[in-house]
Specification:
Blueprint (H helix, E strand, L loop, with lengths): L1 H33 E5 L13 E6 L4 E3 L6 E4 L8 E5 L7 E8 L4 E5 L2 E4 L2 E2 L2 E7 L7 E8 L2 E7 L7 E5 L4 E5 L18 E2 L3 E11 L8 E2 L2
Antiparallel strand pairs: 1-2, 2-16, 3-4, 5-6, 5-16, 6-14, 7-8, 7-13, 8-9, 10-11, 11-12, 14-15, 16-17
Length: 222
């Protein structure tokens, strides 16, 4: 009986060890290829995303990459205008940024007197109200339409911004934060105005946790 007991104990320990290893491998696979969690550290995407929002990002949307390499094994889709994406910051690839796709390959982007133009056409931004929080006592809230996609943006400054025009090169995107006057994005980077497709980590999917904004739990990112 003692011998049987020892064998049973070894069998149980082995089962636990195997289950643990499988769980670790599964978690690695999911994080590498399918879903990864990110936390919003700044207000550059207000009012869509707030400081303290925790996101799940779909890494499978645009394709499958080789682990630890910026190279697609299979490229399934390309980013579309209006997508909210996580990517490696072009000026320091150790930092992840999250912004909205404004322009895709071949698009011409220009900001003229604080008005965004896409392919020489004015982008519709309809006033919908005011926005305020502890960090931003006031801002104008707009509903912007990119193609057939609608999302909210903020405008806080009276300064008339001018930028471009620039043409988005091949295999690249042009991105902007929804908090337009408080976002370090394609308009302001020193070495490039664009994000290469292979530097994109994934598409923002859902807010799974937000502190202290309980009402934002499980909000889909649009």
């Amino acid at each position: 009986m003692d011998q049987i007991s020892k064998i049973n104990k070894k069998s149980i320990l082995r089962e636990y060890a195997e289950a643990f290893i499988i769980a670790i491998l599964l978690a690695f696979f999911i994080r590498t290829f399918i879903i990864q969690a990110f936390k919003i550290p700044s207000g550059s995407m207000k009012s869509t995303l707030l400081v303290g929002d925790h996101l799940l990002v779909n890494k499978f949307t645009y394709g499958i990459k080789m682990p630890f390499m910026d190279k697609y094994i299979i490229q399934l889709n390309r980013p579309e205008r209006g997508d909210v994406v996580v990517f490696k910051y072009p000026e320091d690839e150790n930092i992840d940024f999250i912004k909205r796709v404004i322009g895709i390959e071949g698009d011409i982007i220009e900001v003229l007197d604080d008005q965004l133009y896409l392919n020489n056409k004015k982008v519709i931004a309809k006033p919908v109200g005011k926005y305020s929080d502890e960090e931003m006592p006031y801002a104008d809230l707009y509903e912007e339409t990119i193609g057939d996609r609608k999302h909210k943006i903020l405008n806080q400054s009276d300064t008339q911004e001018n930028f471009g025009p620039v043409k988005v090169p091949e295999n690249s995107i042009f991105v902007m934060g929804d908090n337009r006057d408080n976002s370090h994005d394609s308009r302001k980077w020193k070495n490039t105005n664009f994000v290469r497709l292979e530097k994109i980590k994934g598409k923002a999917l859902i807010i799974y946790w937000s502190w202290p904004n309980w009402n934002r739990f499980f909000n889909i990112v649009i």
